[in-house]
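Summary of Year 1 activities. Much of the first year was spent building the evaluation harness for sequence design. The harness presents a backbone, in tokenized form, and records the residue chosen at every position. We chose the following record to illustrate the format because it has been used consistently in internal testing since the harness was completed.
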């Protein structure tokens, strides 16, 4: 029954059938993360980086009610031009979008789901969602964390977005048994910056060891995913005090405007970009490039 909904591109299928490394990519960053045409240029550049590092890219999306594991250039262009007209799709949206033959841009959650359906084990993104500040009263917790607890996909990111409550995010992941690995660091990166003041569970320094740990987790039948936090390169890292000030102001404006739910993250990221004069968007692009390269190298090691 799944076959009628899941569409694996010929390039991705050939790689999977041959046992070659494949890296999944989300599509929310295309439709909701950046303006056109920068969104399309970035998405295609990320795919090229994955190829250069020995793996096949699989951009994940929902187009015309089909769960796409691997998008063509035309499909990426389509998503980029439609932008925020495309539904930002979490787990709760999948059945509705497929039944209606609609489009959806995949979040971390839905990218993990579709990647796992297709047989893809590694996914590169920018940053994960998490526990929002004030969640003790709003209960605003990203579905990304729940998906990491259940779906056996390694997610390579630059940490949790620093608009979140990072301490509570780590507590939630610990409760759900999700290992948080720092690549070359013992401190949780905070997306735009390399520092957060919070520690990770383990430090790992090579793609080979990342692949070995993930393979072992699967062989032990432990289930669930693994979070690899890869700090933004030093030369693109933003000053922590500057970004914290911008986030505090963005949070104040969100509260004043009554922004809540899934509208919160796009609003805050847009405000941070505005308040930092666009520097945060440049940093965002570079950290995605960095994560794609690490994910591809790890996927190549996993297949050996």
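For this record, the design step produced the sequence shown next.
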């Amino acid at each position: 029954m799944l076959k009628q909904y899941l569409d694996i591109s010929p390039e991705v299928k050939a790689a999977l059938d041959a046992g070659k490394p494949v890296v999944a990519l989300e599509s929310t960053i295309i439709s909701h993360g950046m303006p056109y045409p920068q969104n399309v240029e970035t998405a295609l550049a990320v795919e090229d980086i994955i190829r250069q590092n020995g793996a096949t890219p699989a951009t994940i999306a929902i187009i015309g009610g089909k769960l796409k594991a691997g998008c063509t250039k035309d499909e990426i262009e389509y998503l980029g031009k439609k932008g925020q007209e495309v539904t930002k799709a979490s787990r709760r949206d999948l059945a509705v979008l497929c039944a209606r033959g609609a489009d959806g841009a995949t979040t971390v959650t839905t990218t993990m789901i579709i990647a796992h359906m297709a047989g893809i084990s590694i996914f590169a993104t920018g940053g994960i969602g998490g526990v929002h500040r004030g969640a003790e009263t709003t209960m605003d917790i990203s579905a990304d964390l729940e998906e990491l607890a259940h779906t056996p996909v390694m997610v390579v990111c630059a940490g949790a977005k620093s608009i979140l409550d990072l301490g509570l995010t780590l507590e939630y992941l610990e409760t759900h048994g999700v290992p948080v690995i720092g690549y070359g660091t013992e401190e949780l990166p905070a997306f735009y910056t390399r520092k957060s003041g919070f520690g990770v569970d383990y430090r790992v320094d090579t793609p080979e060891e990342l692949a070995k740990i993930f393979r072992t987790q699967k062989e032990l039948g432990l289930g669930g995913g693994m979070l690899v936090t890869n700090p933004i390169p030093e030369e693109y890292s933003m000053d922590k005090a500057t970004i914290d000030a911008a986030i505090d102001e963005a949070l104040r404006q969100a509260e004043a405007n009554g922004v809540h739910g899934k509208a919160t993250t796009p609003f805050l990221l847009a405000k941070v970009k505005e308040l930092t004069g666009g520097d945060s968007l440049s940093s965002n692009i570079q950290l995605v490039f960095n994560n794609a390269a690490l994910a591809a190298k790890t996927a190549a090691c996993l297949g050996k």
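The mean pLDDT is 93. Quantitative recovery figures across the full test set are reported in Table 2.
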